[in-house]
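Structure tokens please, single chain.
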Amino acid sequence: MTDDTSESPAAGPLRGIKVLDASTILAGPLSAQILGDFGAEVIKIEHPDKPDGMRGHGLDKNGVPLWWKMISRNKQTVTLNLNTADGQAIFRELAAEADVVVENFRPGTFERWGLSYAELSAANPGLIMLRVTGFGQHGPYAGRPAFGTLVESMSGFAHLTGQPDGPPTLPAFGLADSIAGIAGSAAVSMALLDRERHGGAGQEIDLDLLSPIMAAVGPAVIYADQLGIDQERTGNRSQNNAPRNLYRTKDDHWVAISTSAQAIAERVMRIVGHPEVLDEEWFATGRARAQHADLLDRYVGDWIADRTRDEVTGVFEDAGAAVAPVYRPSDLLVDPQVVATDMITTVADDELGPMRMHNVMWRMGRTPGAIRHTGRPAGADTDKVLTQLGHSAEDIDNLRLRGVI
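Here you go.
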């Protein structure tokens, strides 16, 4: 743990915690980003010649990758070749002073490098190691290469997403990785709490990408087990309530409506001029309403089609019914709720100037966390970090000449 206890609590609840982020692409780096957002000191480890592939993901501006600015914010960047004996030795030096290591190499890779949890924790018993893989450290699939797309397919998400008469549908973004990244930050926080309260020992965390998205998909597995039923695609409808769908407005926008609560369903049908359905026996439960979705969607859809998006949202909000517009990302930049709560905040960047990005993920009253800086160029902090470890300038130059850093 680093000695920065004099720092303001506003720096975040994890101030004083040091994290080594040796992971790549998305799930592991997002876990480390969240830890950094809430005060942890994060050191990002990248290969000198083959840095994190996230630097090449997404769009860039003037040759500068934009997604990197967000996913690697609050991280110092250090280049280190873990395939070399010297690189492994330096990593062990860093791990000896760290609280958390995050890695997502194939099972057995860190062991082959002499960086197993057993070896690292022998020198640092309080170390917590988050190991992120597609399918876990053990089992018949452990050695398979895996990306979020594969577990989105296996989890049931693709099977349940899309129109009933259409194909299974994948998300257009890193859904499984993002869910796993959030789960990873929670797992590390639990391990840190356990270490503090129960004797100071760290632990190894085996996080696969499949488990978190299976949880997000919901009760499909228990339905299959207990009822022998595989849920099928329902498009934008729900099997649990109706009306629940996307509806096109007069001015060619789309709005989303959900009626998970019975009172909301009743308000919606009064708004659209069909209060008579409230007297139907089937209207009393969401599940039964879902069986009459064609009728309810027609009533709601016809009413919305005659009005603009602003008219629809205004009437629904005045009546206390649930509605939301379908936004493009640019709409979020000007949404009054997003602006008022600073969900998207402006951060200074040394290369591109002020930029707006997602703020920290939740708002804590006493220790809110902060974005201290954006993602940095590869190796920007290598010399500083190695100097803090006790390496001389001559040694650092020699390591660089030999391709270790």
